[in-house]
């Protein structure tokens, strides 16, 4: 089993960022943006796939998650600067990137704003912009996400009041109990894969994100319900878009919208996938596509 290395990296502005990585440091690098809420962390099967392809794989915790210093008021675009500073600190010149779920917009931010450093990017079951023209943002979401985003739209106080009661239901719980808590968000295909080693790893990544409170989760949601800070039309690097038709966390319509609005995207829309199935099953295909662009 390939070792995963965990450490803190201090950025030029003095903030700490939690990093989990695997693979040899001189290999082509993939930077991973996890979902919401998630700390730095990698699924072991994805690590083994990346290393077998001769890649270095790096995950970092966005501000406020785990041991990563909070950055109040951050935008989706803020992730590009953090990713650039992190790549510099890790000695990575050019890199590929992918993001799952709430990490998808942050991978797209890197594609739009760091084009000279990014060889390719992928959004997996990623949310679309709140102000996306022609998209009913909440339509098709499970009840929990409708309530969460509605609170985020109302502002920080309402969102904080919504999120705080959910923390005890996620911290210290077994995956089965967590799945029950998220039942409005899990379609049949997602229930089927949320078990065994995968569910245990997902649970740890989510629980680690809350060890310092709700701030990463809070700030992610607030960033999603305001302008992202960049234009998708400005993207000039190769981008792959994945979306499952049976996704109750990020509706299929979000993937369709991104497919039509990210220039020249390689689009993978699937009638069989939900949300978690894209994460557990499709990453090797994403790695193969990203690796082909180095």
TrEMBL record:
Q: Give the matching SUPFAM superfamilies.
A: alpha/beta-Hydrolases
Q: Does the keyword Hydrolase apply?
A: yes
Q: Which domain of life is it from?
A: Bacteria
| Alphabetical list of Gene3D superfamilies matching this protein | alpha/beta hydrolase (3.40.50.1820)
| GO MF annotation terms | hydrolase activity
Domain named AB hydrolase-1 is located at 28-281
The keyword Repeat appears for this protein: no
A Pfam family recorded for this sequence: Abhydrolase_1
Q: Which UniProt keywords apply?
A: Hydrolase
Looking up PANTHER family in the UniProt record yields:
AB HYDROLASE-1 DOMAIN-CONTAINING PROTEIN, HYDROLASE, ALPHA/BETA FOLD FAMILY PROTEIN, EXPRESSED-RELATED
Task: Please report the name of this protein according to its UniProt entry.
Answer: Alpha/beta hydrolase
Report the source organism. Alicyclobacillus fastidiosus
UniProt lineage: Bacteria, Bacillati, Bacillota, Bacilli, Bacillales
């Amino acid at each position: 089993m390939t070792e995963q290395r965990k450490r803190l990296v201090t950025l030029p502005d003095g903030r700490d960022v939690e990093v989990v990585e695997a693979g040899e440091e001189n290999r082509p690098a993939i930077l991973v943006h996890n979902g919401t809420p998630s700390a730095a962390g990698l699924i072991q099967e994805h690590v083994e796939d990346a290393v077998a392809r001769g890649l270095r794989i790096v995950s970092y915790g966005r501000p406020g998650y785990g041991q990563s210093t909070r950055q109040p008021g951050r935008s989706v675009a803020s992730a590009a600067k953090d990713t650039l500073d992190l790549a510099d600190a890790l000695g990575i010149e050019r890199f590929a990137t992918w993001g799952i779920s709430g990490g998808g917009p942050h991978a797209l931010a890197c594609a739009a704003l760091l084009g000279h450093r990014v060889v390719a990017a992928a959004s997996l079951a990623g949310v679309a912009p709140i102000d996306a023209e022609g998209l009913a943002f909440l339509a098709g979401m499970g009840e929990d996400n409708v309530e969460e985003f509605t609170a985020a739209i109302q502002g920080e106080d309402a969102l904080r009041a919504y999120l705080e009661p959910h923390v005890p239901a996620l911290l210290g719980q077994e995956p089965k109990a967590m799945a029950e808590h998220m039942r409005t968000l899990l379609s049949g295909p997602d229930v089927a894969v949320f078990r065994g080693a995968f569910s245990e790893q997902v649970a740890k990544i989510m629980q680690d994100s809350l060890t310092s409170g709700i701030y990463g989760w809070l700030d992610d949601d607030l960033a999603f319900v305001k302008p992202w800070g960049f234009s998708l039309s400005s993207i000039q690097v190769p981008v792959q878009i994945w979306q499952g038709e049976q996704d109750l966390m990020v509706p299929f319509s979000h993937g369709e919208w991104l497919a039509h609005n990210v220039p020249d995207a390689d689009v993978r829309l699937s009638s069989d996938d939900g949300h978690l199935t894209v994460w557990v099953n499709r990453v090797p295909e994403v790695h193969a596509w990203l690796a082909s662009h180095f």
